[in-house]
Amino acid sequence: MTFIYQQYVVDKKSVRGGDKDSYYLYLSYRPVRQKIWETMQNKLIRLKVIGISYSQTQSGAYALILAEENGERRIPIIIGGFEAQAIVIKLENLEPPRPLTHDLFRSFAQACGVTVEQVLINRLREGIFYSEIVCTDGERRFHIDSRTSDAVALALRFECPIFIEPQILNEAGIVMSAATEDEQKKQAEPPKEKKKPVSSEYGEFSVDELKDLLSDAISREDYEQAAAIRDEMARRKGQG
Question: Does domain 43-175 have CATH number 3.30.43.10?
Fold first, then answer.
């Protein structure tokens, strides 16, 4: 597959130079390349981002939880604090006062006419997930090696799908039953009392005060606090 992509790029450069033989060779490769691409796509499994949680195995680290769209298996991936922050910002729809690295990459790519088609988790070695970002400039498609955390952060910004090779999901996927999920939710949530709203550390603030706190948290780039404030505002909106 890689050879065909590379041949395509070389032939296209030759076409621009007026090489007729390379031009016909280029045309002959196009349907073959597209067919192989479609065959590969049909074998991949699409994932969705469930969220971020604290890692129970590594102190100071986070777990990125991915799940297959049409199944019950989940993939926990250990990531660092900065990468977790970059993902949470998009999940919570927060707007940082300055562009972060992944936002800068998106702006740079768009300015150069490049977009991300998809992200693929394609390798698993010694517990480490490897990914590639599939990009296109409208004329050719090319692959960029990436850490999975960075790839997911970019996928959220480009609003493109995330895929995984089936053998990797078979090896690392975890099946969680509905009973197990309900039990974890009950352990994570405080007990609820009847006819009494759920409180938080921001429960005593007014809506206007919460808005000011949210702006201040974002300006300080404390996105964990900003997410908690957004949760409190969303809870009140739901009660109203």
Answer: no
CATH 3.10.690.10 in the chain, residue ranges: 43-175
User: Could you identify the residue written with the tokens 């550390």?
Assistant: 201
- Tell me the C-alpha to C-alpha distance, in Å, between residue 64 and each of 171, 173, 228: 17, 13, 18
Per-residue confidence in pLDDT tens, the chain, 240 aa: 333 333 334 344 444 444 545 544 444 455 545 555 555 666 899 999 999 888 777 777 889 999 999 888 999 999 988 888 899 889 988 888 888 899 999 999 999 999 999 999 999 998 899 999 999 998 889 999 999 999 999 999 999 999 999 999 999 998 876 555 555 444 434 444 333 344 467 778 888 888 888 778 777 777 677 777 777 777 777 665
Q: Confirm whether pTM is higher than 0.85.
A: no
Look up tokens 């999975």; give the residue.
148
